[in-house]
Amino acid sequence: MTFTTWLTYFIATLILCISPGPGALASMSAGMKYGWARGMWNCLGMQVAIILHATIIALGLGAVLMASADIFTAMKWCGALYLIYLGVQKWREKPVSFATIDAHAKFKDTSRRGIFMQGFWVDLTNPKGLIFLLAVLPQFVDPARPTALQYIILTATLVVTDLIVMACYTGLASKVLRLLKKPSQMKMTNRILGSLFITAGGALAVFRRGS
């Protein structure tokens, strides 16, 4: 893989990561509720899902999975229903200040796994991510050179890029929340994010591989 090839791939992944989507919504939601430090567990969960998707493709299983209409449909509906579930939860969420959250050490400790798994499931059950990697990753792999190392480099590039971008979304949201003093403002923000989650879930439900 030449540097020019890698740079082209990096630009493509950067554009993809910056584009608003379920991952960005999940990052902003985690940042607004937990702050930047704990919200990063959501970002880490998404990166593990990306690594899993890339591994599936590197092993040649991606095309097999996407060729099955039943598997694709099941994966799509799992992702859509999960996003809608997150949206409903966010819509119903009561406004809680950072001071209140930080005061509950027990909640703080037991929530990290949940925050991590939320990000993991958001990315893992999104077939768009798998389709993108399936379409893009092999195009940048030179079959005349060791493919395993190339897949590692490409996956690491995507993970680092996405982690930085999602960290920025998380940090931005955590700063915005600190400016929301009134419960009514926080409640409205929760409902806006919840509506966006539900919209994303609906869009995924009608998504077709050929579209």
Structural class: mainly alpha
Which segments are poorly predicted (pLDDT under 50) over 5 or more consecutive residues?
none
Distance between the termini: 30 Å
Secondary-structure element sequence?
HHHHHHHHHH
Radius of gyration using CA atoms only:
18 Å
Description:
With 211 residues, this protein is mostly helical. The chain has one domain. 82% of the residues lie in helices and 0% in strands. It is built from 10 helices and no strands. The protein has helices at residues 3-18, 22-34, 36-58, 62-67, 69-92, 98-103, 105-124, 127-136, 147-179, 183-205. Helix 2 (22-34) runs antiparallel to helix 7 (105-124) and helix 2 (22-34) packs antiparallel against helix 10 (183-205). The longest helix is centred in the C-terminal third of the chain and has 33 residues, at 147-179. The model has no long low-confidence stretch (mean pLDDT 81).
Short description:
By secondary structure, the protein is mostly helical. The protein is 82% helix and 0% strand.
Short descriptors:
82% helix; mainly alpha; 211 residues; globular; single chain
Map the helices and strands.
Blueprint: H1 3-18, H2 22-34, H3 36-58, H4 62-67, H5 69-92, H6 98-103, H7 105-124, H8 127-136, H9 147-179, H10 183-205
